[in-house]
Amino acid sequence: MTPWSRLLAPAAVAVVVALSGCTGTAEPPVTPSAGPTHGRLPDAGLFAVDSRILGPMVIDGQGYVLYRFEHDSSAPSRSTCVNECSARFTPVLVHGELRVVGIDRQLVGNVAREDGSVQLTLGGWPLYGYSGDRMPGDTNGQDHAAGWWVIAPNGGRAARPGGQGG
Q1: Does residue 166 lie within any of the structural domains?
Q2: Which of 35, 140, 145, 162 is most buried, taking the most CB atoms under 10 A from its CB?
């Protein structure tokens, strides 16, 4: 990464977040992206943002929303999403140093997966991206199969007070 790209990466995330409807009142971007690249965290980061619909939630370094799975365990941390499941909801794997913004660093951890890889956790919950989210800020995995939820910065389910989740 060049010195200029290190300086511009946080600004790019801020632009993606603003355009994705996670903050402010801007409409989501209309240009298609290459889709989520989970399994790696571009710019190695977890960022807390505020969604008009779901309230506080967590995104990765490219602005893609992260999820938790109710069939996993947070105490102790354990991932049960394997094989076909992990093709759709891709584990967020540990790769080097991690930048954490707006999230209590003590809530961020990791868990070993069956295949030997190491997955990031938040509040004990293993983190995933969703292959059906095509643009930063998409939340197409929310309440998928009654077990997938956008994750909040505290590890809980992202939801506005009085809404689903929590």
Answers
A1: no
A2: 35
